[in-house]
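Reading is simple: each integer encodes one residue's backbone shape. An example follows:

___
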Amino acid sequence: MSGLSASWRDMGPAALDAGYNARATTPTVNDIVAEYRTRTDAAKAVLRWSTHRYGATEAERLDVYPAQGSGSAPVLVFVHGGYWRALDSADSGSMAPGFTAAGACVVSLNYTLAPAATLDQIVEECRRALRWVAENIAAHGGDPERIHVAGSSAGGHLAAMLMVTGVGLPPVVGGTLLSGLFDLMPLPQTHVNEWMRLDEAAARRNSPAFLPLPAGLDVVLAHGDTETGEFKRQTTEFAVALHEAGNRVTVVPPRPGSNHFDLLFDFGERGNPLHEATLAAMGLGE
């Protein structure tokens, strides 16, 4: 691929920077982010779960929430957002009750945050975690041949990087990408580079839009209603690219008033169109 459209090149510096400032679109962002941990703690209080290491460092760990039921379950591997520099798997289990009740095994990945880690290192950690899941999830009731990756914001980018081909990854059967970033070429010109320190080469090699895309997967994409135009564009254009590559793509219309951050709550809410679309993509829909 040649990437998504380069319309961002026509934007002035201030407009481009604003286009990638998700926090500025949501006055209640701090309250919502705090709710991530509250809901995850509540999930852990009622569900079976365990933490496992997939690498040598403290950050290389993941939380496993087995499916509620017996038999080999499809696996939802979730990667948290936070612009690669914030949050933790401890903030990223809010969706576990809904998905485990529907028959899925949920895995929430953690990774080393920027700027302590480069994006190359973060991507490699997530790939190492996916390999751990493929090799070990059967012991937790999950089916390693039915892995569906998902992520929000920067986690949407990382989930997409787990879907690309030609890098020796275990195959996945689908993905749910929530307001992700798929062409990183604009980022070196924004405030995000204060902690990401991307040059053009690093941005390109870590852009799913420039890498070989899979075919035959069930992919769900969504963005919030009040997102910036750039976040909406990235989702819309990557959906087209995935469709053209031969995937079954569902774009879930935004809930009126939804934002970049509470989209994660829609994802975990039983009966919500985004939740139900993901269940259908995982073969768990009615």
Summary: The mean pLDDT is 96. The CA atoms of residues 47 and 72 lie 18 Å apart.
